[in-house]
Amino acid sequence: MRRTVLLLVAALASAPLWAMHCPMDMAKIDKRLASNPPEDPALLAQVQKLRAEGERLHKAGDHAQSVQVLGQAQDMLDSIP
Question: What is the mean pLDDT of residues 15-40?
Fold first, then answer.
Protein backbone atom coordinates (compact mmCIF):
# COMPACT_ATOMS: atom_id res chain seq x y z
CA MET A 1 0.00 0.00 0.00
CA ARG A 2 2.81 2.37 0.92
CA ARG A 3 4.53 1.82 -2.43
CA THR A 4 1.30 2.54 -4.28
CA VAL A 5 0.90 5.83 -2.46
CA LEU A 6 4.52 6.79 -3.14
CA LEU A 7 4.13 5.91 -6.81
CA LEU A 8 0.97 8.00 -7.05
CA VAL A 9 2.64 10.97 -5.36
CA ALA A 10 5.66 10.70 -7.68
CA ALA A 11 3.42 10.54 -10.75
CA LEU A 12 1.46 13.61 -9.67
CA ALA A 13 4.63 15.53 -8.87
CA SER A 14 6.13 14.78 -12.28
CA ALA A 15 3.09 16.02 -14.27
CA PRO A 16 4.34 19.63 -14.39
CA LEU A 17 7.67 18.39 -15.75
CA TRP A 18 5.90 16.72 -18.66
CA ALA A 19 3.92 19.89 -19.27
CA MET A 20 7.09 21.98 -19.54
CA HIS A 21 8.73 19.44 -21.86
CA CYS A 22 6.09 19.73 -24.59
CA PRO A 23 6.76 23.38 -25.54
CA MET A 24 10.49 22.67 -25.74
CA ASP A 25 9.87 19.75 -28.09
CA MET A 26 7.52 21.83 -30.24
CA ALA A 27 10.11 24.62 -30.44
CA LYS A 28 12.81 22.15 -31.56
CA ILE A 29 10.55 20.81 -34.30
CA ASP A 30 9.56 24.32 -35.41
CA LYS A 31 13.20 25.41 -35.56
CA ARG A 32 14.16 22.36 -37.61
CA LEU A 33 11.25 22.85 -40.01
CA ALA A 34 12.17 26.52 -40.47
CA SER A 35 15.89 25.92 -41.01
CA ASN A 36 16.04 22.55 -42.76
CA PRO A 37 12.64 21.10 -43.71
CA PRO A 38 12.39 17.64 -45.28
CA GLU A 39 12.48 17.66 -49.07
CA ASP A 40 9.90 14.86 -49.25
CA PRO A 41 6.44 16.51 -49.14
CA ALA A 42 4.86 13.40 -47.62
CA LEU A 43 7.40 13.34 -44.79
CA LEU A 44 6.95 17.07 -44.20
CA ALA A 45 3.18 16.64 -44.02
CA GLN A 46 3.51 13.74 -41.56
CA VAL A 47 5.87 15.70 -39.30
CA GLN A 48 3.54 18.72 -39.37
CA LYS A 49 0.58 16.47 -38.55
CA LEU A 50 2.39 14.91 -35.58
CA ARG A 51 3.54 18.33 -34.39
CA ALA A 52 -0.04 19.65 -34.48
CA GLU A 53 -1.30 16.54 -32.69
CA GLY A 54 1.35 16.99 -30.01
CA GLU A 55 0.27 20.58 -29.44
CA ARG A 56 -3.39 19.52 -29.27
CA LEU A 57 -2.56 16.85 -26.68
CA HIS A 58 -0.50 19.34 -24.67
CA LYS A 59 -3.36 21.83 -24.58
CA ALA A 60 -5.73 19.03 -23.54
CA GLY A 61 -3.47 18.18 -20.61
CA ASP A 62 -2.27 14.81 -21.92
CA HIS A 63 1.40 15.65 -21.61
CA ALA A 64 2.81 12.13 -21.61
CA GLN A 65 1.07 11.34 -24.90
CA SER A 66 2.10 14.74 -26.28
CA VAL A 67 5.78 14.04 -25.52
CA GLN A 68 5.47 10.65 -27.22
CA VAL A 69 3.88 12.08 -30.39
CA LEU A 70 6.34 14.97 -30.55
CA GLY A 71 9.15 12.44 -30.09
CA GLN A 72 7.92 10.56 -33.16
CA ALA A 73 8.02 13.78 -35.18
CA GLN A 74 11.53 14.54 -33.93
CA ASP A 75 12.68 11.00 -34.77
CA MET A 76 11.37 11.43 -38.31
CA LEU A 77 13.33 14.65 -38.66
CA ASP A 78 16.46 13.10 -37.15
CA SER A 79 16.35 10.26 -39.69
CA ILE A 80 16.91 12.75 -42.51
CA PRO A 81 20.60 12.93 -43.48
Answer: 84
CA angle 57, 58, 60 (to 5 degrees): 65
Given a contact cutoff of 8 angstroms between Cβ atoms, the answer to whether 70 and 31 are in contact is no
Q: Is 25 a domain residue?
A: yes
38: which DSSP letter?
A: -
Total tally of structural domains belonging to the chain: 1
Q: Is residue 69 part of a domain?
A: yes
What average pLDDT score do residues 35-53 get? Answer: 96
10 domain residue, yes or no: no
Predicted TM-score (pTM) of the model is 0.75
Rounded to 10 degrees, the C-alpha dihedral 34/40/42/48 comes to -10
